[in-house]
Amino acid sequence: MGNINSKAKGKRGELELVEQLRHCGYANARRSVQYCGKTGDAPDLVGVDGLHIECKRTEHFMDEKALQQAERDSKKGDLPIVCHRRSREKWKVTLRMDMFMAIWGELNELQRHNVAEKIKFSVKSEKIGKQP
């Protein structure tokens, strides 16, 4: 009977996470084909390009096991992540440190680029405004 309850909790967790992703602007987020009873290497959720999402709604989260599952099942080029939460807690994301640092580096580079573009634009705007 515990297995049925854990499956129901897992389904509820996936549906919660779908709503969270939709709220964040991913209107195509949905549970994967696994809800039809098909298993294998499909992620728990689809509709966020570039991510392989495993969803764990449990009080006893086993991070390494869950992350290994995401890594094993992800397609080449997809970032394997595990979204998880316990009761009365917010959703969290688990991924490897090297992947996080690569993402962080890209974000910093984009921020530097955007700042440089803004400076270029404001200098051009000033020059245009000074022309007779």
Question: Could you explain the architecture of this structure?
Answer:
- The protein has helices at 2-23, 63-73, 97-130, and strands at 30-31, 45-46, 51-57, 79-85, 92-94.
- With 132 residues, it is α+β, with helices and mostly antiparallel strands.
- The longest helix is centred in the C-terminal third of the chain and has 34 residues, at 97-130.
- The protein folds into 2 domains: 2-95, Trna Endonuclease, Chain: A, domain 1, CATH 3.40.1350.10; 96-132.
- It has a 3-stranded mixed beta sheet with strand order 3-4-5.
- The chain starts with a helix and ends with a helix.
- It has 3 helices and 5 strands, in the order αβββαββα.
- α2 links the parallel β3 (51-57) and β4.
- 51% of the residues lie in helices and 16% in strands.
Short description:
The chain is α+β, with helices and mostly antiparallel strands.
User: What is the typical, i.e. mean, pLDDT?
Assistant: 86
Number of helices: 3
- Count of folded domains: 2
Any low-confidence stretches, pLDDT <50, length ≥5?
none
What's the architecture of the largest domain, going by CATH? 3-Layer(aba) Sandwich
End-to-end C-alpha gap? 82 Å
